[in-house]
Structures are given as structure tokens and as C-alpha cells.
């Protein structure tokens, strides 16, 4: 099944949903032109379609294997990785100061969607390398930077994040892996880490692990965790990989999806590591990359959903079954209203979630870090939920063919399911949104956002033509609902607020995605963009089918903790 | 992971959501006592938990194999099937006139939920046998009945349904398998059938296939299809299985889930068959069983969802992570508001969908076939959708452990995904609801149902205590929404109605499930049932979290076809 990234959609959103011109005019990106972005994204689309996409199913059907403490990646992945490095894509998402291309984050996000859509399991490896580069750049010593960064920016060496342990997942406080000072500037790490994505493989010449561990006498809990760099191969004086370090993969998880991505259990047996950042401040170092990683997981949801959409669309064009309502002969199922509805539902949800991811990236590009922080958990959770929902519709459009693995629709459904879980479950995102991003600043960041989108319905009315007389009031209602919900959460007890956190995040996603689609339709009409009528059709579907569900979240947000704690815990098993 | 069917919940719904006493007092079931039902369901629960459930994962991890034209079932399934037959469970769901136990359908539905929850892949085999028994009983000649029925009612011989062909799925009109009259009362069948569930296996002594095929000179399309009985082994004079018939499995599908159920490609090569019913009336014969089969697929959704719920509940009790809001020490995640919310969401959705399935069964038991026909597509689609949604939440509660196959949470997620697809996709159910069940009788059946549930808010107010001052108006609003939506669909053009069909079905499911939960809470309080307060807590959650989404469906139902056909079909690929 071929895959072709939605290039026009991305460019449209960059121009009309977020303000690419303003980003390019800002200090950081004055040497980046619109044309350059077009060229880069065109190249990324081609690499994604031609080189990455064909191996997506190979990875799924032939997961990595472990042999004698070494992971052998899926067939063809070694060559694919080589092409990746040679084509220079690794440096795309890395800032200039770290030796990367220094493009705006919205461009990175668009390219990332292309790569993940083509081959999400593979794409995780470069993502982890980028994150590790950022952490080392921000917190590593000059020596660590000089030894590791150059090789990682090209992708010759890859990165891995070793956080989770069996008893320490969502809460990293109970991390037990021990680090002991060797007295020579290095530390010896001992312990077991699980769920280490691309923790070992045979694609890169070295793998640079960032490992959370606890020093002797460190405070208990999350304030006693430090971050260490452990390379798979210790680095020789000349910069080449030397002897193997004392840690290795001892198992691979058998997973629901992303089978092309080896998920390792790693055993550290006195492994040599170097401290990154300050002692006991390891979690803070990790959080440096967290926001970006979370945005990119939201992008993954959109990416897999987009791939599932393209496949379902093709199937709907090809599959002949039944008579369409105004025809006599048997016809492709795309003519059936319910199939068309499913396609529009997928397309609109994906476009809305994509717009939220872009708005998050754009906030960072414009230096509006409050906005970026506020939108990040929404982008991560909403984007990943939309991924699961749309891949499920993709299966459904295929009918029985969707349930057999042969077509590949089921792979997208399986692959997408990880995104609501990793990089902080979507429940954690909702808590982050409500507690850290909303209540901590008394709702100031959200008030600014709401004030801004509050003007959108008026701008819709001002356009006059085409007729948006249905969309403007629906949107105004949605914004009103967002304000009401925000007030409820701000004034609620913490327990009530936490109970309403997920419905609130969903409400935010439904309203903000609708606002962005309508805004981009309006801006498109103003700029006489030929695609504007199509964006308006999506926005119209959104206001009819998606936006009304925002209001439906209010009752539970209002009800708070009693709605779920009134049911006695000891009777949950039956009645 | 152990499984224990929700016995109390089922009994509560039978008493207070549907009227078991009235069913037992009706002519057909006067010899069935409440105690007998309790004994039977108790036995079914035990068989499900002890015998069926332990092999659920075995079947998933060790799918059936095909060797030399014979399917070898998953390890242990042969012995399990033997126990099934010896314990007499096959006859449970079969009417007295056909040699079965003749229990009300609500009891069958409850037992079926237990069996499917324990091992859905296995449970499909007995389901198909029951369906085949019904078709042969209703349409077969006396000779066919005497040769096949006795052995099938015990389960010694199993049944299979051979409908689908590559070009004939949702629309069976294009079926191409040919049947030629042999001139001796038999026919020779030639062609290929796909997606044949339990089409071959080594558990039963014979397998009785009901096959759709086309006679020479039959009219084109669905009015030229006849039904034939083809046994795997031709039956000797003494009733024993004789020589192998000329058809065989030539492949097994590699599926997303229900791996313990062999899904066969069957090749008929002049196979000997007997006509069932009249020539060219094969589809009508199939429809005899369709309603029941559809109800049972809805039950499957609830069953798998329930199993996923139990597993998630256990995990939430066991998994220690983070501090709960009013505690200092690390605590099980069940104390976290968002985890509790997810559990309540699962439990309430499942209870609501279960109530709809029971109401469907009860309508049949009471001879209200209009009601049964109206509720069947809702039970099938809503039940199966709820299955997918709740198993997804089950994965989410497990966090990273939900994505690895080891825990089993992912299996439920995979298994559940078939139910919205087979026995008529949920899109087909929505069309059936809107076109055949609603518009064909001008909405009369729905009007009667709505008039009945319209009285529920008043009965809630009349109870007085406990306080349902929040639920009564929410419910009244829900019923109003159902009326409004019904009027829109009745007055819409066919294309508009078909576009709104799925949202309308969902709306019906959300409202009717809410009505049934509240009604059962009210009835429970009146009967001083000790579980009534818990049912009220679920009903309260439903009115806060689920019912409000019904109203959110109205805008799309109102918008109709333009909402999805306005977007140009040739721009669906990008923008």
C-alpha cells in the first residue's frame, strides 16, 4: 500500500492556521525562506514515500530479534537507517546551535508526520536520537558534547532513553538503578530498565543511552534521581567506538504494535556512565526534552491516522459492493453515505489534530512558551486519541478485509495504540494540563488563548461570503463552553479537577481544533487560496459532528469526583 | 488472568431493567422458575470460569493450523469442545421444539455473555451450530431434520455458515458459487467461500455447512440465491459420518484477533448438497437467523468488554504507582481520580449495553417482534462499539503493560474489533435501523418505545427518595432528543437519512441505555434490592458522562448528506 504525505494540507495549515510568515520574519529564522521549506518538505515526502513506507509492513511482520546480547533489527532496516543518515534527515529537527539545520519546529513537525506516517516503528529511533542530542546539549559537560554530539547529529550514533523500571513508570520516583562514583569522573550503573525503545540494534555504530539512576545517599523519590550517559561502546581517544560497555539487552517485548521498533529490557551491570547535569536533578534534565517529545507523539497519532485514512480512501474507491443510492449498477462503496461520513470523520479529525500540533510548534517558534506549554498536553493526548479513533474507522471501512492482517489496516490500528500510553499516558497529560498548565497560573495562559480565539467567530461573520452563518454561532458556542469548563476547573477542589481532567482536555481539543479549522478557512478565503472551500467543508463537518461533543463534556466536569467515587470501590467487581 | 461473570449484574437487570417475572408468567415459560434460571446461570458461570477461560490465551497464542485439507484446532480446544458437549450447554440456546432446553432468550443472552467473555473465539463454534439448527428447523425438509438436528442440538456435530465470497460481502447479491441439480435430490456445489468461521476443525465428528449458491438460470442478484446443506462427511444410512464430501478448507486467515477461531477459505468442488427451503429464497432463510445472530454479536461486545474491565480493575487494585490525592504513601492506582473515572466509564457503558441486549431478548420472549426488530440493530452495533471502546480503555488503564501482549489486555482489544464488522457491519445495522425498522413503518415501533420510556422520568420523580433531581431532567432531555432525532430521520430524504444513520443509532443507544439503567435503579429501590444504590450511581454517571453526547449527534443528523458530500470526492486524498 503506497503512502503519500498530505503535502498540500500541511502547507495550507502552515499558512492559514498558524502564521508561517510571522515565524519566518522573526529573528531566529530570517534565513529560512518559504521556498526552502517547500523543498525540504518535498524531499521529506519523497524519502518517506519511496524509502521508508515500503518497509513498514516488513517491520511489523518481522520484528527485531535478540541474539547473544545483540539486537538484530528487522530486515532492511539497517539499509534504511544508512539511507536516513546519508540523506541528512537526522539534522532536520536539530537546532543550529547543536549543529542541525535550525528550522522552525512547525517544519520539523510536518516532516515528522511524513516520516511517522511512512514508518512509525523506524521513526522512533531518530526521534530518540534528537531528544538525546537536546538533553546532552542542554545539560552535558563540554567534554560529553564534544565526544558525542557530532556523531549523533548526523545519526551515525543513535540515542536511547532509559527511564522506566518495573516499579517506576508514570511515577519515576521509585527508580532503583544505582550509580556509584568511580572516583575518576565516571560512575558505575547497576539495575534493570524496561520498555527501552531502540535500546539496542545493529543499525548505528554506537548507541548513546541516557539513564536515570540513584546515587548513594540520594534523597528518596523523584528528587534523588540523576541522569547518566552510557554509550553502548566506550569511545576511544580518536573518537571511534571501543570496547563494549557493561550493559546489554536481555529481552525484547512482544507487543501489540510498532513491531519494527525493538523494545528492550536492559540490564546494567556496573556499566560506565557520565553524569549529565547536576546530581539529583535528573528528572529536570529529562523534562527539557519532554515537551518536544510529547508534541511529537501527538504528531505520531495524526501520522498513523493519516496513513490509515489514505488506505481506507483507496479501498473505498476500489471496493465495489452494493448499489449507491442514486445509481442502478454496483458501485464503489465511496458512494455510500455512511462510508463517505466515515472518511470525512477521519479527515476532519486528523486535520483538526494536525492543526493543534502545528499551533503548539508555532507557539514555540514564536517564543510563546506559556502557550506552547499549555498546548503540549492537548497536542499529545488529543493527537494520539485521534490516531486510535481514526485507525479504528479505517479498519471499519475495510469491513472483513480490515480484520485480516493481509491488508495492513489492522497494523495501523495496532501501531497507533501506543501513542496514548508512552511519553506520559494521556491521563498524565490531562493532569499536567489541569494542574500545572491551568491552575498553577490561575488560568492566565488559557485566558489569553481564549481571548484570542474568542475573536474568531466575529472574523467568520466579517468574511460575509461564503456563508458561514451556521459555523459562526456553533463556534461561538464552543468558545463559550471552553470558558465555562475552564472556570469550573479553576474553581474546583483538586480532586474534582482531577476527575474532570480528561473530559476537559478532550473538550479543549474539540474546541481548539474547530477554531483552527475555521480560522484557517477564513484566512484562506482572504488570501484567495484555492483550497479554502475544501477547508471550509471540513470546518463545516467539524461544527456539525465534532464541536457539539465539547458541550457534552460539561456535565461530568461539573459533577467532579462524586460522579466516580460515589460508586463503592468494593462493589466494582460486580454490582 | 481469572474471569468471573458478573452474575449479580445480570440478575439485577433481568429483574429490574426487563421484566423477568412477566416473561416467566407468559405461556411459553411457565415451567421455568426463577430458581432454575439461577441454577443454570450459576452452572454456566462456573463452566465459563473454570473450563473455558483458561484456554482463551492459548487460542490467541496458538491459532489453529491447516494440514492436508484439515484444520487442527488450538491446543486444548478438542478437549474443551468435548466438555462443552458432555455438559449439555449446546442445547441451552435452542428451543424446545428443536430438542433444546427452551429457556427465555434473556437467559440465553446472559449465558452467552458468560461464555463469550470466557473464550469468545471458542464460543463462536457453538453459536454457529445454534444458528444452523434454527435454519434447518425452520426451512429444512423432514429428512434433513431427522438426519442432522439431533446430533447438532447436542453439539456432536457443529454448524458453519458459508455466505461470503470475495466479491460478495455486505451485499450477497453477487454470490457466484454454482449449484447444479444432480437429479437425485442432491445438488453439486462448486465455488469458493471466504471468512468461514469454524469452517473446519477437529473438535466435532461432522461439520454441517449451510451454503449460499446460485442455481442455473436463477435470477441475477439476491433474488437468485438458494441455500444448501453440505456436510463435511456424507452421512451413512445408520446416521454415522461416512465418506468425505468434495469440499475442504484451502487456507486460514491471519487475523487481528479471535485467533482461536479458525477462519477458513473453503473450496467447493462439486460438493454434494441438499436444498434448504425454496429455490432462490436462500437469503430469506438466512435472515431467519440473522436477528438472533446480530443480538449475540452485540452480546459479544459486552462480554469482551466485561472481561477487559475485570482485568483492568484487578490491575488497578494491584498496580502501585504515585501518591493518591489524599494520601502520603504510594498507593494502588485505583485511588487516582482519572483511573477511577476510566473504570466507571467502562462499567457504565457495559451495563448500559448489556441492558439493551437484554431488552432486545426480552422483547422476543414477550412476543413483541416489532420491538425486537427495532432494538436488534441497536444491540448489535452499540454493544459491539462499546466492546471496542471499553477494551481500549482497558489497555489504557494498564499503561505500558497494556501494550505488551503478555498481560492479555491487548488480546481483548484485538478480539473485540471483529464484532462491529461481522454479521453485517455496524454501518449496515444503522441502515437497517433507519430504513427498515424506522422509516418503513413510519416510525410506529419507535413511537411506541419512546412513549414507554417517556414515562420513566416521571417515575423517577415519583420515587422521591433517593434524590434523583439531577437525573430526571437529564433523562427527560435525552428522551426529547430521541424524539427530535426520530422526527428528523423520518422526514429526511433517503440520502440525508442514510448519512445520519450511524449518529442516529449511536444516539438511540446512548438514550435507551440511560433510560434502562435509571429505570432499573428506580425499580430496584421499589423492590428494596440492596444493589439499587449502586445501579443508581451508575445511572448517575451515565446521565453526567454519556447521555449528554446524544444531543451532540443532532447537528449532524440535521445537516444530512451535504455535511459529507459537500467536500469534493476528487480532493479527498489531500486538500
Protein described:
Two copies of one chain form a homodimer. By secondary structure, chain A is of the alpha+beta class. Among the domains of chain A are: 133 residues, Acyl-CoA dehydrogenase/oxidase, N-terminal domain (Butyryl-Coa Dehydrogenase, subunit A, domain 1); 123 residues, Beta Barrel (Butyryl-CoA Dehydrogenase, subunit A, domain 2), CATH 2.40.110.20; 138 residues. In chain A, 56% of the residues lie in helices and 13% in strands. In chain A, the strands form four sheets. In chain A, strands 3, 4, 5, 6, 7, 10 and 11 form a seven-stranded mixed sheet that branches. The first copy, chain A, has a two-stranded antiparallel ribbon with strand order 1-2. Chain A has a two-stranded antiparallel sheet with strand order 8-9. In chain A, strand 12 and strand 13 form a beta hairpin. The interface between A and B is large, with 106 and 106 residues.
Short description:
The first copy, chain A, has about 575 residues and is an alpha+beta fold. Helices cover about 55% and strands about 15% of the residues of chain A. Among the domains of chain A are: about 5-140, Acyl-CoA dehydrogenase/oxidase, N-terminal domain (Butyryl-Coa Dehydrogenase, subunit A, domain 1, Orthogonal Bundle); about 160-280, Butyryl-CoA Dehydrogenase, subunit A, domain 2, CATH 2.40.110.20; about 430-565.
Low-confidence stretches of chain A: none
Q: Calculate Rg of chain A over CA atoms.
A: 24 Å
Largest sheet of chain A: 7 strands, mixed
Beta-strand proportion of chain A: 5-15%
Quaternary structure state of the chains depicted: homodimer
Structural class of chain A: alpha+beta
Q: Please, how many helices of chain A?
A: 22
Roughly what is the average pLDDT of chain A, rounded to an integer?
Answer: 95
Which range best describes the helical content of chain A: under 10%, 10-25%, 25-40%, 40-55%, 55-70% or over 70%? Answer: 55-70%
Intertermini distance of chain A:
48 Å
Which outline of chain A best applies? globular
Record field, number of beta strands of chain A = 13
Pair with the biggest interface? A-B, 106 and 106 residues
